[in-house]
Specification:
Number of domains: 2
Strand content: 15-25%
CATH topology of the largest domain: Pnp Oxidase, Chain A
Largest sheet: 7 strands, antiparallel
Radius of gyration: 26 Å
Mean pLDDT: 94
Oligomer: single chain
Bound molecules: flavin mononucleotide
Shape: elongated
Low-confidence stretches: none
Helix content: 25-40%
Number of helices: 11
CATH superfamily of the largest domain: Electron Transport, Fmn-binding Protein, Chain A
Amino acid sequence: MSQSFKTFDISSLNNTQIEAILKSTVAPRPIALVSTVNKDGKVNLSPFSYFSFVSTTPPVLVFSPTLKEGGLEKNTLENLREVPELVINMVNYEIADKMYLTSGEYDKGVDEFVKAELTPEASSVVTPPSVLESPVSFECKVDQIISLGDQEGAGNLVLARILKINISESAMEPSDLPNSSKLDLVGRLGDDYYCKTTPEALFELHKDYNNTTGIGIQSLSQSIRNSNILSQKDLDMLASSASLPDSQKIDRAMNQDEVKELFLEFETERDMIKDGIHKLGKSLIAAGKTEDALATLMIVDQI
Ligand SMILES: Cc1cc2nc3c(=O)[nH]c(=O)nc-3n(C[C@H](O)[C@H](O)[C@H](O)COP(=O)(O)O)c2cc1C
């Protein structure tokens, strides 16, 4: 695989170019719709996608309101310096346009809940309200604010300690964990792009989570690595198997009806049998049965 790269020296870029490149390359990013209040109790709601969680013990989220022209602080940051409490509301597809509406540079004191007709819901342990329409909200207090500079564009890392998590019942599984596709969260990319997390957009990596290490691509036999039927992605998935199958497992794979039929049909035509086994292996990988696929594919090394 060969790939050529365009390299940018940071000193050759202006702030707008750096921002545009980072927005499209560090993506997709979750969106924090942050509600705060000032010392007079006036509510503010604004979105921030320079956002993630950075610690589970203690549970801490981080987002970064950058400085405006002239090095001025955004209303959210000013409010947090006055009242160090906030609610971080997650954004689903349903409220994506309303979220966008709240991002306007409104004057301090303008309530973006009203602008976007979002419903403020009283929080249980902090003063700012949460967004009722949001599927998840985190009630937080400010742990620390780390300022990265005094120029326009400089980030201010707001480390927000989570006190309460509210998740819509409609997104909960019986296991008491939220279901990723039911949350329907959106992400922010470059330009004006956003992404959805609908079921067809999601994929699982078929890893054996009981083991933290895979056998690696080098452990796959030549007949598997040189296959015309298996893709590089298939090999990568096989390589995440926890161990090579033992001879009993390969014997069991040999007893699959599909394999017996191949031997009956092609008798001594080894290449035809091999192709049939590789097709079967590929379909087992696609069905998420990686370990069964590996045992099936290793039959070829025994014929
Ligand atoms: C999806 C989205 C993500 C945004 N992310 C950020 C961000 O991470 N940091 C930032 O400073 N501004 C970000 N903005 C812009 C702010 O929302 C905007 O400056 C807003 O007016 C700030 O409001 P405030 O002054 O009331 O705090 C984002 C806007 C949108 C639409």
